Amino acid sequence: xxxxxxxxxxxxxxxxxxxxxxxxxxxxxxxxxxxxxxxxxxxxxxxxxxxxxxxxxxxxxxxxxxxxxxxxxxxxxxxxxxxxxxxxxxxxxxxxxxxxxxxxxxxxxxxxxxxxxxxxxxxxxxxxxxxxxxxxxxxxxxxxxxxxxxxxxxxxxxxxxxxxxxxxxxxxxxxxxxxxxxxxxxxxxxxxxxxx
Length: 196
Known about the structure:
alpha+beta
């Protein structure tokens, strides 16, 4: 008899093949992944650089437009005006205004006391020395006036001297004191006036 060809395509013997190692495929996948990430990062850096260049060009063009809007002569005039305003501010800050002394005296002088002379010396640092001659109707009025001046924060080293009585019984006296620079400063008087 003729040998018959097998009717089944399933082999009767087990197939033994060589096993492939899986480590090479994982390493290749990792290398490809890193390569793709680096390409994406390089592309992002390139695109960001182009964006920054375009933004810089836009800012430069807007700056040139803004520069064109101003006239050079106007800029020079404004610079001179700024210098003048700065000097005027300095002058006002250093300006001495003795009117503050008169305001202080009118507020603190008692009705029964009058001043017959006033001398004000202003020092280089802005402080001053005041010398007053006056007449009071009695020693008690003079004592009250002394309390008024001693309690004032703008006068320091208040000294009453030359106390004597005249033929009518009124008391003559002299006063010397140091004046605080704040009462002589125009800038401080002006800011106090604006605050009120």
